[in-house]
Amino acid sequence: MINLDASTFAQKITEKDVVVLDVRTFEEFNQSHIPDALNIDVQGDYFTADVTALDKSKSYAVYCRSGKRSVLASEVMEQMGIANVYNLIGGIMEWQESCRDTVN
Question: Where does the pLDDT of residue 57 fall: very low under 50, low under 70, confident under 90, or very high at 90 and above?
C-alpha cells in the first residue's frame, strides 16, 4: 500500500486501469463520493468476497471518511493478492478540503 495525499491521489485516479474504491458504508457513500467510485463496505459481511472478485491486474485507489478504514481495507486487499493499492491519507474529509469541485 502506498499512502497518497489528496493532490497525488487526484492525479493517480486519472490513470488508466486505476479503480477508485470507497470502503465506507452505503449510506456514507450516498451522501458524497468521488466520481466513478465503486462502493464496497470494509465492515460489511461480504467485503472479503467482493475483494476476491476484483480484477487483480488493476490498481486500486482506496478511501474512506478519515483514512482509518481504508488502511485496513488496503491491507486486506494486499493480503488477497492485489499488488497495486493506493490509500488516500485523511480520507474523503481531506479530499473535500483540497478538491471541493470533484465530489458528487
Answer: very high
pTM across the whole model: 0.92
Q: What is the pLDDT of residue 100?
A: 61
Q: In which order are the strands placed within the sheet that holds 85-88?
A: 2-4, 85-88, 59-63, 18-22, 38-39
Distance of CA 88 to the CA centre of its chain: 7
The number of angstroms, rounded, from the C-alpha of 27 to the middle of its chain's C-alpha atoms is 16
Alpha-carbon dihedral 37, 40, 41, 45, rounded to 10 degrees: 170
The CATH superfamily assigned to 2-102 is Rhodanese-like domain (3.40.250.10)
| Extents of the domains making up the chain | 2-102
**Cell 493506493, residue located:** 86
Mean pLDDT score of the chain: 94
